[in-house]
Specification:
Blueprint lengths: L1 H17 L2 E9 L5 E9 L2 H20 L3 E2 L13
Antiparallel strand pairs: 1-2, 1-3
């Protein structure tokens, strides 16, 4: 019984490690109004997610070094307006 629990736990760990997805995206704008978008996405689990995040952060850091700043997301009012 203990062996079955160990095998089941190991299987769940492997499944959780190998599955999943990650998506990172942001837009940065400079003083002249130019913009650059850094984006990384993929499906493969924890290990790939770490590399995706590192690549995304490298893109953002490079853009910030060139004078770009992250922009705030635009939130649109989706509620109907009264007339």
């Amino acid at each position: 019984m203990k062996l079955k629990l160990t095998i089941y736990t190991f299987f769940c760990f492997v499944l959780a490690t190998l599955t999943g997805c990650a998506t990172y995206k942001t837009t940065l704008t400079d003083a002249q109004g130019r913009s650059v978008t850094c984006e990384a996405s993929g499906k493969s689990g924890i290990v790939t997610g770490v590399y995706l995040r590192q690549g995304f952060e490298d893109c953002v850091n490079a853009a910030e070094a060139k004078g770009f700043n992250p922009t705030q997301p635009i939130v649109q009012n989706t509620l109907p307006t009264k007339q």
